[in-house]
Automatic annotation (TrEMBL):
Protein name as it appears in the record: Nucleotide-binding universal stress protein, UspA family
The organism's place on the tree of life at top rank: Bacteria
Boundaries of every UspA domain copy: 5-139, 154-286
Family classification: Belongs to the universal stress protein A family.
CDD domains, A to Z: USP-like
Amino acid sequence: MNEPHTIVVGVDGSEDGQRALVYAIRAALFRDADLVVAHAVDDAVLAGAWGVVYDPTLLQQAGEAIVEEAVGTATSMGLSPDRVHREVAMGNPAGVLAKLSESSDLVVVGRRSVRGLERLFVGSTSVGVAAQARCPVIMLSAASHVEHTGSLGRIGIGIEPNPKASGALRMAFEEAARRGASLEVVHAWQPPTVGLFGRALDAERAQELRRRDTEHVEQLVAEERSRHPGVEVTQLEVEAHPVDTLVDRSAELDLLWLGVHEGGFGVGAVVRGVMAHSRCPLALVRGCAVQGRRAGS
């Protein structure tokens, strides 16, 4: 007998947390999954600023109240009370959610909408979860058209000519098949530069590299097409910056998949850029999260 699916959602009493909660509830209903409503009492704030000391008991009680309200929302939207679970833990929010991801199929988090230089930092919790999670992470921002999610009938994935991209691509195909949606594969190509001052390659060499990259992407897509013959696929290849292209396309998608490279800083500049500006929910997946993990509606 298969184990039940489990979806974790992080809540903190904010509008962003509420947006993530509603998405996670809908995903749990779609997947017939258990829902874990989680709140982290960040131990980093206990000492406070300017010497103010916070009572951990009061913070714990506040967290429990936030979770209890979220559980009420889940049951009012149709989830059975025995399928909704509570988790209030002490620790860094990203670390708490990453730990819960080890036994989950999906983690859902919200991200506050920011402007200007703040966009460069995206949000420590969402970035931290994306970099550490052992399952796919759905990230929603205030710009995401979450109320219309599922109505467009189109899933997207940003892809690069790298064998490591095959895992996220496979999951995007599975998602499209499960929803009965079409899949848009987006490959944004930029001519590489060489040397300390970023000298452009000559046109002939650049075109040869583009041709090679295109062939690699087409091979990856062809392999997944053969496994999912019922999924309608369109491929978009443009010579443009990937962040600009993916953000532009996100307005026409129910969900955009992106692979998160492991190692280094965990979440690269392209993923961070799309996280900061995407118009639809993002499904972020590390290589280690590919096996048997799927996102919800």
